[in-house]
Specification:
This protein is of the alpha+beta class. It is 22% helix and 32% strand.
């Protein structure tokens, strides 16, 4: 893991309706990755790397629940990262709830030659971006598990692995007859 890239991502302050710095960060990072195409819809950022019949796809959101601070700094003690407002000299939220998701999505774009990623806007205030998602973007995305809709989240349970992935804000479910994503 590139810890400096993680710190570079975490230091970008963002909250709902205050995502501009994260947008610019994501755009600059994607621009440095070869063979990527970027598009926008409803304030979401859509990225495709390479040409393929099917793509793995990862989603993340650009906002956090934390306030933004003028003197925000990231610090590391051993394996732990934390944030401080150096003006008030107090620990504040690092925004790891999905800045880590942004980091992982960007790392996957850097690592895999065929990949799709979506960065959603304003998810912390009611899944605004995902509810306005351009569903056609996902038509050539592969899913390796069954999606089970619950009241507050979606769980993807891989049918060939012991891993499970919890995804906030359900975007799609699998149709039992076609195994293809469909809008819910």
């Amino acid at each position: 893991m590139n810890i400096q890239q993680l710190k570079d991502t975490l230091v970008v302050q963002t909250s709902s309706h205050k995502e501009q710095a994260m947008r610019q960060f994501i755009k600059s990072q994607v621009k440095a990755i070869p063979d990527t195409r970027i598009s926008y819809h409803a304030s979401n950022i859509y990225v495709t790397r390479g040409e393929a019949l099917l793509y793995p796809c990862v989603v993340a959101h650009m906002d956090t629940v934390h306030d933004c601070y003028k003197d925000f700094q990231i610090y590391q003690t051993g394996d732990n990262l934390f944030a401080m407002d150096t003006h008030s000299v107090r620990q504040v939220g690092i925004g790891g709830d999905d800045k880590v998701g942004v980091f992982i999505a960007l790392e996957m774009l850097r690592t895999f030659k065929h990949m799709k990623v979506v960065f959603f806007t304003n998810e912390e205030i009611g899944c605004v971006g995902s509810s306005r998602a351009r569903l056609s973007f996902f038509e050539d995305c592969c899913l390796t598990g069954w999606v089970i809709k619950t009241l507050s989240s979606t769980e993807v349970i891989p049918n060939s692995s012991a891993l499970s992935l919890k995804i906030k804000c359900c975007l799609c479910s699998l149709s039992a007859d076609t195994n293809l994503p469909k809008a819910i």
